[in-house]
Write a structure and sequence with these properties.
3 helices, 190 residues
């Protein structure tokens, strides 16, 4: 079956407004919308199927109640900071990984969207945890943001991956991912 395409005749050297050029195309591809656009209102009355009219409603976050399990107990902080240092060889215990173990692990919840804000204090560093797919530069005077979503519990090791100075090889990062309930109990201590 042949398809006839609308034609637009132009005189040589004449300028045609964009609306005049697109009008025939719109009516060809969307004939049911050609009349609705001229009225100035969007055509949403046929979205619900035949015989049903769509109901548009404004929704706000305040309309939904916060579950009680998040309201119990002390307030959980949204951020905290601490210093974590490499465990020396003489302090290693069985099961610890040499040059990758720290005295204070970063504890994070699983199944939660997490945002890291990373900056440097002295020289360029690189915050890297390969098993989580995280790597970003820590530049003095700038803040870099990276996001993660940890799906399983476990311990994830990383380290500075920028040649930042004499102690570059001794800047490990250890993330311990725990359940959200365990994290809430841990975060209340801070």
């Amino acid at each position: 079956q042949a398809c006839t395409f609308p034609r637009l005749s132009l005189a040589p050297g004449s300028l045609v407004p964009l609306g005049a050029m697109l009008g025939p195309l719109k009516s060809f591809f969307w004939p049911q919308r050609a009349g609705a656009e001229s009225s100035g209102s969007p055509a949403i009355e046929n979205l619900g199927g035949q015989g049903r009219r769509s109901r548009v409603q404004d929704v706000r976050a305040e309309d939904y109640a916060t579950p009680e399990k998040y309201l119990e107990g002390a307030e959980i902080p949204t951020f905290y900071q601490f210093q974590s240092n490499l465990v020396a060889d003489e302090d290693l215990k069985p099961g610890m990984i040499r040059n990758l173990e720290v005295d204070k692990r970063l504890t994070l919840p699983t199944r939660t969207h997490i945002r890291f804000l990373v900056t440097g204090q002295d020289v360029l560093h690189s915050f890297s945890i390969p098993s989580l797919g995280l790597k970003t530069d820590a530049t003095p005077g700038r803040i870099n943001r990276i996001n993660t979503f940890i799906q399983r519990e476990g311990v994830f090791y990383g380290q500075c991956s920028e040649l930042c100075g004499t102690l570059h090889g001794f800047m490990p990062i250890v993330v311990e991912a725990v359940s959200p309930e365990t994290y809430a109990a841990h975060a209340r201590k801070w």
